[in-house]
Amino acid sequence: MLDHIGIQAEDVPASARFYDAVLAPLGARRWLEFEGGQVVSFGTTAPGNFWVSAVPSDQRDRAGRENHLAFTAPDRAAVDAFHAAALAVGAESLHAPRLWPEYHESYYGAFVRDPDGNNVEAVCHHP
């Protein structure tokens, strides 16, 4: 179980716009902004579940790693809407919405690439 997740972005406003679009179908929204929009919080019922902040200037030249973020979707239609919203804001589709029976029989997910190269998923575990 996770309390919150934070990722770093090269361009926080671009990432915030991406997450505004793709998290809306999942029932989440932007809640807080700090440091002139360089730290942004998203959540479903309260702020603080998911944070995007700027990469510190002393770490910008360092090679990064792909992060994987999986957001819970209430139903399969929300997974489909997440994927459509991501494509509408120019995201790369890694995997279109589909069943992933290798995970379990009801695992329905879609995967996209965010502006910083992270693998972002929406998943529904219900039939």
Automatic annotation (TrEMBL):
Pfam families named in the record: Glyoxalase
CDD domains, per the entry: VOC_like (cd07262)
Record domain VOC: where: 1-125
Annotated source species: Streptomyces albiaxialis
Protein name: VOC family protein
Top-level taxon: Bacteria
